[in-house]
Amino acid sequence: GVLFALNTAGPTYQALNDIVFLNEHRLYHNYEPGPQTKSLGIVKHPSTLPQLLCGTYDGFIYGTARNHSSQTDDENRVTYHIPELPNGKHTLTLHYVGGGGSIAIGEQGRVNFKPSKQEASPGYTAHTWSTPVTVSDGSLEFAAYPSNLC
Question: How far apart, in whole angstroms, are the C-alpha atoms of residue 133 and residue 147?
Answer without folding.
Answer: 19
